[in-house]
C-alpha cells in the first residue's frame, strides 16, 4: 500500500500503526455495509416471495372457481338444449296433430255436404267469403237462416234478426 502524502516512510511507527488500524476499520465497515445490503435484499426477496405465494393461492382458488362454474355452465347448457329440443319436438307434434285434425275436418265437411262447394266457389282453394258484420258465411243474420253441413234450416218462431213472434 502506498504511504499517504505528507507521511514519511521511516517516521514514527505509531502513525503507521494508526493508519493500518484505520484502514482495517474502513475495510470491515465496507464489508458490514455489503453484508447489510445482502441481508436487506434477502429480506425484500423473502417479503416478495411471501406476497407471491399469497397471490398464487388466490389465483389457484379463482381458477378452481372458474373450473367449477364452467362445468356448471356446461351442464346448464346441455339441460337447456335438451329442453329446447323437447319443446321443438312437442311443437312439431302439435303442428302435425293440428294439420291432421284440419285435414280430417275438411274431409268430413266435404263428405257431408256436396252443396258446400257452392259456398267456396268452383275452386276448392278459394277463400271462404266473410260478411261485413264478421259472421261466418254459413250464417245469415237478417233472415235467421242458419246453414249447416246438412243443409239450410229456417228457425221457427223468429221474426227478423232474433225477435220472438207474439
From TrEMBL:
A matching Pfam family: SPATA24
Coiled-coil regions listed: 19-72
Ranges where the record places region Disordered: 144-166
Any one cellular-component term (Gene Ontology): nucleus
Keywords: Coiled coil
Protein's recorded name: Spermatosis associated 24
Superkingdom of this protein's organism: Eukaryota
GO molecular function terms attached to this record: DNA binding
Encoding gene, per UniProt annotation: SPATA24
Keyword Coiled coil carried by entry: yes
